[in-house]
């Protein structure tokens, strides 16, 4: 896989987890927020999406986590044509995707433990089957002592890690994160990044949208750079320090 | 904290908060609507019973007005009419009313009269009819004509028709008001659901994001609003039942007014209210929730 921003369309293969072919997207009757985007990502890859505010990073992630559909072009996810997927099939596909959104979307009335367990409950698992896994995961992300805490009582970094724990608890095939280090200090950003690297080592495809050029530069991971809704070439970054 | 958190005793918390700040206001509004709906139902039942009671009394009776002919005295004509009607099929009792009784009926219009003999007051014959198979006015008239009597039969059919018409109007109006209130309750619940979903958009978004099916999300709101409506319906029904009971006790068998005789059994009509309210709420919540989820 190329490390260039236009890590674009290649031949379909069994290892391909998603493919965009000349995808455009717009909200309502507004202008295109994504134009003619083509790319193919292999399973187990790790990519950053960069670009200035309004470049289309969040919209690209929205397409991938099936919160929106392309207004034009082809989109295959997990080998299926998303544009032909029925509304009934979408929830099952979403369960294979972990999302850490920019505003985290934690439920304030639920404890850290309950927030993390949500995807497993929704998927119909019984509490006895997963409660130990949830506890282990929260301990792994450093929230072992805050399992009963409500989100409003957590610090910014703790909330971030809680959102990550919820995103990965269902062992998703893809993990998407939108500015996951936007509200934390440099040290916490590195810790969160290492968490993503560890998940990627376990086989999860990771895609992170970020403004953090320093993190991108140090990571040495391939970059998908968006400029006014179009994928544009960008020089590859050096190795992580 | 974790040192007291025993995960083996952990039970999943409800997806939605147990109570919302707006719940009491919503419960009050739905309870009032249910109270009005129950009162309407009680009023309709009582009105129907009153109309049936009056109709039943009139159906069982007929009155014959007899005028004397030629040299026959009014008393003799009345006696002959009573004799002609007695024994007819559908007639159980015939009684010629005394002259004084007939006079009492017309006194309000004519005032006190010293010599009744100077006034050609017609005699009345009261006929009690078989309630199951009452004789028709035509049959009575035929029997009287056969005896060459100058008589007019009043089987109260005009009154019965009017009372039945009035009862139908009362019943129809009550049903219309009941339906309007039920629709209003449904609309209130629908608006409340919309507001509830807007207030809990975070829950909807998160559940949507992590792969909950639309039915899973909407069922949360269906259950929530069905519970609130059932509670409100119970409050409204009990209040209306208590008021109905008080009216029954104040007015005895005739209720607070003879036109609306409430029976104890009528109070059972409020029983389905909580269930109906819950069903309306669940349906409204389902439609609203699914529409809003689709728009996410």
Describe this structure in words.
The complex is a heterodimer of chains A (241) and B (296). Chain A has 241 residues and is an alpha/beta fold. Chain A contains seven helices and ten strands. In chain A, the strands form two sheets. Chain A has a six-stranded mixed sheet, sandwiched between helices. In chain A, strands 2-1-4-5 form a four-stranded antiparallel sheet, covered by helices on one side. Chain B has 296 residues and is of the alpha+beta class. Chain B is 62% helix and 8% strand. Chain B has helices at residues 23-59, 74-85, 99-110, 137-146, 157-199, 201-209, 214-251, 273-294, and strands at residues 61-67, 91-96, 123-129, 150-154. In chain B, helix 1 runs antiparallel to helix 5 and helix 5 (157-199) crosses helix 8 (273-294).
Briefly characterize the structure:
The complex is a heterodimer of chains A (241) and B (296). Chain A contains seven helices and ten strands. Chain A is α/β, with parallel strands linked by helices.
Outline type of chain A: globular
Instruction: Look at the structure and give the mean pLDDT of chain B.
Output: 82
Helices of chain A, by number, come to 7
Q: Which class of secondary structure composition applies to the elements of chain B? A: alpha+beta
* Oligomer description: heterodimer
Helix content of chain A: 25-40%
Tell the overall outline of chain B.
rod-shaped
Q: What string gives the helices and strands of chain A in order?
A: EEEHEEHEHHHEHEHEE
Q: What's the total number of strands of chain B?
A: 4
| Overall average residue pLDDT of chain A | 87
- From the alpha-carbon coordinates, what is the Rg of chain A to the nearest angstrom? 18 Å
Main sheet properties of chain B:
4 strands, antiparallel
| Distance, first to last CA of chain A | 22 Å
Give the number of domains of chain B: 2
Unreliable stretches of chain A (pLDDT < 50, length at least 5) are: 1-12, 237-241
What class do helices, strands and sheet pairing of chain A give? alpha/beta
Q: In what order do the strands lie side by side in the largest sheet of chain A?
A: 6-7-8-3-9-10
Show the largest interface: A-B, 38 and 24 residues
The CA-CA distance between the termini of chain B, in Å, is 36 Å
User: Which sequence of SSEs, written as H and E, runs from N to C of chain B?
Assistant: HEHEHEHEHHHH
Contiguous low-pLDDT stretches of chain B (5 residues minimum) are none
